[in-house]
Structure formats: C-alpha cells, structure tokens
Amino acid sequence: MIKLNNLRLGQKFTLLLVLVFLAGIVASGVALSTVLNRSAQAQVTTKALMLMETMNSVREYTSSQVQPELEARLASEFLPETVPAYSAREVFETFRANPAYGDFFYKEATLNPTNLRDKADEFETVIVENFRAQDDPGEVSGFRTTPAGKLFYIARPIRIEQESCLQCHGSLEEAPASLIDRYGSANGFGWTLNEIVGAQVISVPAETVLQNARQSLLLTLGIFVVVFAIAIFLVNLWLKRFVVRPLNRMARVAEAVSTGDTDAEFNQTSNDEVGQLAQSFNRMRMSLQMAMRRLERYREGRRSSGNFSE
User: Fold this and answer.
1) Of the candidates 214, 242, 267, which is a domain's last residue?
2) Which of 19, 76, 203, 283 could in theory staple to 153 by disulfide, Cβ–Cβ 3.0 to 4.6 A?
3) Its GO CC terms (predicted)?
4) What are the φ and ψ backbone dihedral angles of 20, each rounded to 5 degrees?
5) What tens-digit pLDDT sequence spans the chain (310 residues)?
6) CA 132 to CA 198: how far, in whole Å?
7) Whether the predicted model's global pTM rises above the 0.85 cut
C-alpha cells in the first residue's frame, strides 16, 4: 500500500482532485438521475396529453358531426364507426404506425362497457373509482406493473356530458337492436348524464421513459468527465510549472549551498508564495555568506596573531 507521505506534491494534488471528482460524480449522478427521470416523465406526459387531446377532438367530431349525419340510419342499424370511443381507438392505431408513437397504448377503460375489450382491469378500476369519489377530478400519472412489464401511464376521467351517448348506453329498452345483437344485453347500459364511467388511459413502457433519462444522464456525465479530466490536466500542468519546478530548483540550489557553494542563487520568478520563499532563501544564503566571511576573517586574524591552531 502506497503511503501518502511518500507521494510527490503533484501526485498528492492529483489524488485529491480524483477523490473530489469521484465524490462529485456520485453526488451529481444521483441528483441528475432524479432530475432527468422527472424530465423524461414530463416529456412523455406532454406527448401523451397531446395525444389525449387529439383523441378528445376525434370523439367530439364523431359525436357532433358524424352521428347527426347518420341519425336516420342509426335508428334501425348500429354503426360502430359512429361511436366516439371506437373512432378514437381507430385513429390512435393510425398514430401508432408512426415510430415516434409506436410504444404508446390507448384505452378507454370503462367500468361497464358495451365492448368488453374496454373493460377496466383491477388497477384501472381503482383509478376510475378514485375519479368518481372526487368532485372535480384531474389527470393522474405514475407507474404500474403488468404481466407485460412496467408501464408509465397518464389517465383522465371519462364523463358522460352529451345526451347522444345515452341513446346506446341509457336503458336497455331504448338501445338499438343491432347494438344488442352485436354486443349482447348484459353490459354497457344504465349510464347517466354527468356520470364518470371510465378513464382515458395512455401508457408507454417504463423502459422508454427510463431509457431517455439514462441517455441524458450518460451524456451529461460524459461531458462532466471530459471537462473534469481537462481541468485535472490543466491544474497539474499549472502546478508543475509554477510550483513543482520552482521548488525542485530551490531544492537543488539548497543542496548546493549546503555543500559549500554559497554563490548559488535562488531564482525568484514570481511574487507569489513560491517567489517569496525563494526570496527568503536568498536572504538566508546572503546571511550565511556574511557569517562565513566573518568566520574566515576571524580565523585569519587568529592565524596572523599566532594564536590559532588547528
């Protein structure tokens, strides 16, 4: 094991910088991971909400434009294309053909749907029930675990706000016969105006969110590592030029002076602490020269008077 006292000044300083660097990497990595995860979730949430607003526009268009045009035909025949939920789901599948939205999934999770494909699962049922328990529910988001893996989801309540929805989902007796023939009479009836019957849910694999965060984290840490490596190099270069080299030169001069070469001079190249040290050594060297001269004169005086003996 290398003892710290045996390391050179530059090595000690480099070791200190490396330790600070490693501590900074760990601390910043933890902080950046949290921030970037939240940022990635916010980006996915923004994209999901845009999709959800688009689906709501499709639903509104189907309800206000398509259904009235086919009202006479709907009296005797059920057309799935006139159902807002059906239109929204089909349009969303077209969106998913775009690679940018291929990982997104859309579902109108309903407690009592006509089409059992829209039946809310246990997790979605809890979300819907929470919406129903609130006076003015908003959107919720988070992570959930499914057999297919972990998902990040965004959900909004589905509230019955138009009378036209009750033509198919009101009482069983008033529902189109073709609807009952297609989906049966057991589900999808008894809805009331202003009732929250389900939740619009858009989900995306959690790995997509985490992968975006990891890529940003690696890029940020990579830049941080490069910048700090350059900083260590420049600091060591500066330390070697302005501290280590002058100290080595002073050490060699001090060694020469200690062996009797009192004419060796400590070069002062700066006015900083290293320069002040060189100046102090020069004063010490001059004091030593003066002391040696006095000693030499004293010895010569003793020798001339005949009283000096070796």
Assistant:
1) 214
2) 203
3) membrane
4) -60, -40
5) 456 666 666 677 778 888 888 888 888 788 888 888 788 788 888 888 888 888 889 888 888 888 777 777 766 677 777 788 888 888 888 888 888 788 889 999 999 998 888 899 999 999 999 999 998 898 899 888 888 788 899 999 999 888 777 777 888 888 777 788 888 888 888 888 889 999 999 998 888 777 777 788 888 888 888 888 888 888 888 877 777 777 777 777 777 777 666 666 666 667 667 677 777 777 777 777 777 778 777 777 777 766 544 4
6) 9
7) no
> In this structure, are residues 112 and 186 in contact, taking their beta carbons and an 8 Å threshold?
no
Range of the domain at 300: 217-304
At residue 19, what are phi and psi to the nearest 5 degrees? -65, -45
Q: Which two tokens stand for residue 43?
A: 């980006």
Determine, yes or no, domain membership for 2. no
Amino acid at 149: G
Q: Please say which residue of 171, 191, 214 terminates a domain.
A: 214
CA dihedral over 121, 123, 125, 128, signed as positive or negative: negative
Number of domains in the chain: 2
